[in-house]
Design goal:
- There is one protein chain.
- The chain is α+β, with helices and mostly antiparallel strands.
- It has one domain.
- It is 18% helix and 33% strand.
- The protein starts with a strand and ends with a strand.
- The N terminus and C terminus are likely disordered.
- It comes from Steroidobacter agaridevorans.
Length: 209
């Protein structure tokens, strides 16, 4: 994915609601819930990606998992341009970002691009951050945001499904999943800096409202 603007998510201070007993990192990060939500998003947007890419930030707000989604311009020669800042503008200010996902166009590459890998890597400091993408054939993968090299990131991939094999009735389903009350978060202000993909200089600072 060629991304016109990549987003860096600054420090988010999180205070969890009181709960008894130790909770695993998987539970606190809502990994199963996030994966289920992302599969729903791919079931909706994967079939629409014939000549576009869709990009979304997964976030938690008021105990509800949602995605802030944006669409690329029409792809040319299997290259797509996505402005990820557009997704940010629809996200609540007090959201807790948990990851990102994007589709590849049906005639595009089955592998990650350097922009895909770099974008997730730049957000690796965010607790619980996960990254997902779908290949042209519908296969859905997650990969490690801690990898900066495309070959190493590709080697870290794990398959999580295929949107062409989604259960009947899933496509078009858009109701976000609610995690159990014991895992709800109280989150402070989320600030995001947006820069162009071809420079390391910050061009703007967004406070999402």
């Amino acid at each position: 994915m060629n991304v016109a603007y990549r987003v860096f998510l600054a420090v988010v201070l999180i205070a969890t609601a009181p709960r008894s007993g130790a909770q695993s990192n998987e539970s606190e990060c809502l990994r199963k819930e996030v994966e289920a939500h992302v599969l729903e998003q791919f079931a909706i947007y994967g079939p629409k990606s014939a000549n576009h890419e869709y990009f979304g930030f997964v976030y938690l707000h008021d105990g509800i998992l949602s995605s802030a989604v944006t669409r690329s311009r029409p792809c040319h020669a299997a290259k797509c341009v996505v402005d990820s800042a557009e997704a940010l503008r629809s996200m609540p200010r007090s959201a807790k970002v948990l990851g990102e996902w994007h589709t590849h166009p049906h005639g595009g590459s089955p592998g990650l691009s350097k922009e895909d890998v770099r974008g997730a890597y730049n957000n690796r400091h965010i607790s619980c951050y996960q990254a997902f993408y779908s290949a042209p054939g519908g296969a859905i993968y997650t990969w490690s945001p801690n990898q900066m090299s495309v070959p190493v990131a590709m080697a870290s991939r794990a398959s999580v499904g295929n949107y062409k094999e989604a259960p009947a009735g899933l496509a078009g389903y858009s109701s976000p999943a609610s995690p159990p009350p014991s895992t709800r978060y109280n989150v402070t202000t989320l600030s995001l800096a947006v820069r162009r993909a071809d420079t390391s200089d910050f061009s703007a600072l967004y406070n999402v409202r």
